[in-house]
Each structure stands twice: as C-alpha cells, then as structure tokens.
Automatic annotation (TrEMBL):
Domain OmpR/PhoB-type span(s) in chain numbering: 135-234
Taxonomic source organism: Paenibacillus paeoniae
DNA-binding region coordinates: 135-234
Name of this chain's protein: DNA-binding response regulator
Location of the Response regulatory domain: 5-118
Phylogenetic lineage: Bacteria, Bacillati, Bacillota, Bacilli, Bacillales
Predominant subcellular localization, coarse grouping: cytoplasm
C-alpha cells in the first residue's frame, strides 16, 4: 500500500519538526528541507504528494519554488508563512498555492487542511480516483473500500478518513468476524510497541465509527467485543 509523502520546506527546524511530528502520527511519510533549493531537489528526485512551503526561505523563496513546481507538477501546495496580511494571503494563492496558513498555527488545523487538500486532489484527478471495478475491493453493507487507491465510499458517497483510520478499517475489513485486540491493532497500524496505547486505538475507532455513520444506524460495521477487542461485521 503506497504511503503518502509530504514535503515540509521551512528554514526553522523547530517548526518543521513540529509539523512532521503531527503528520507522522497520522501515518504520512515526511521529507524535510531547510531551503528552497533543497526542496526542489526532493521534488525532482522523489515522489511527493503534497508540499508545505514557507515563503521566506533561503536560496529559493516559496513564491519562486511554487512557480518552478507548477511548470511540471500538479501536487497540492500549502503556504505556511509569517506574512499575515490579507494581501499576503491573496498573493500566495495567486502565485499558485492551494491553501495559506499563517504562523503561529494550530498543528491539528494544518493536518485537517492537508487531509482536505489531498481528498480534493484525488477527486479532481481521475487517474488517482477509485476505479469502477477492482479485484482488491472490500465491500460490506453499503461500504466500499479500495485499498490500493485508499478510497472509501459509503452508499456511493466518499468518506474522508485519516491515514490511521483508513489502515484500521482495512485491517478489520480484510478479516471479517476476526477479533483484533487493541494491542494487535496498534502494533499493525502504528508499527510500534504497544506500551498501554489502548486509548489511542479506542479514540481512532470512535472517530471512525462516527464517520461511517454508525451512530445513525442500528447495524454496526465495527463491533466491540468487550474485554477482547474489535471485529468487522462483514
């Protein structure tokens, strides 16, 4: 399953590290560059799905870097800048950015905007959208999952999931009726030792259920087996 790669270009290491921390928690792979020239090299040599760019960077600033990127690539670009006036924001969008956030910023809001831009990009690019038929497709009770494309549809409507929520759903849906403990889910999805991380799994399951509309339907797609774990009612 292809991981989504996000480029973070900012000469302030603390900010880049903070962004990386939150994006990695959501399951994204991150690349970091300290100036525009290094960022451009990563764009040319690696598969980047979205870029978060500071405007005032050494060597090549964010405006010029965006212009160069737009000559060949169509990936979403989010400007993250200390330039805060309305004119600055308008200029950033006119220069080719898809979104604009000002510093200081809320990391969770940035993650939400990243998710939104990636969802929009996939919807507007047919080559990345879910095909009409797929041998790896998972389907149950109006829910359709395309693991390779990382798309989910509920009764024909797209469902926006974070990378971790998607991975949990695919893990459960790929093994209908099998009960997975919180420890097993955490180790499979996060790839880390458990260390009492059951609450993390529980929170993600709760959010996943809400997005699947389980609070509005009697038939639960994800079943809680008390004292054991979770199972998919496929």
């Amino acid at each position: 399953m292809k991981s989504i790669t996000i480029l973070i270009a900012d000469d302030e290491a603390e900010i880049a590290d903070l962004i990386e921390l939150h994006l990695v928690k959501e399951g994204y792979r991150c690349l970091k560059a300290v100036d525009g020239q290094e960022a451009l090299g990563m764009i040319w040599t690696q598969s980047v799905d979205l870029a978060i760019l500071d405007i005032m960077m050494p060597k090549i600033d964010g405006y010029e870097l965006t212009r160069i990127i737009r000559e060949k690539f169509h990936l979403p670009i989010i400007f993250l800048s200390a330039k805060t006036t309305d004119l600055d924001k308008i200029t950033g969008l006119v220069r080719g950015a898809d979104d604009y956030m000002t510093k200081p910023f809320n990391p969770m809001e940035l993650v939400a905007r990243v998710n939104a831009q990636l969802r929009r990009f996939i919807q507007l690019n047919p080559s990345m959208a879910a095909p009409t038929a797929d041998t790896s497709m998972l389907e149950a009770g109006g829910l359709v999952i395309y693991p390779e494309q990382r798309n989910v549809f509920l009764y024909g409507n797209p469902v926006e999931l974070t990378p971790k929520e998607f991975d949990i759903l695919v893990l459960l849906a790929s093994h209908p009726k099998k009960v997975f403990s919180s420890e097993h889910i955490f180790q499979r999805v996060w790839g880390e030792a458990y260390y009492e991380s059951g609450n993390t799994v529980m929170v993600h399951i709760r959010t996943l259920r809400k997005k699947l509309g389980e609070d509005q339907h009697k038939n639960k797609l994800i079943r809680t087996v008390w004292g054991v774990g979770y199972a998919f009612n496929g």
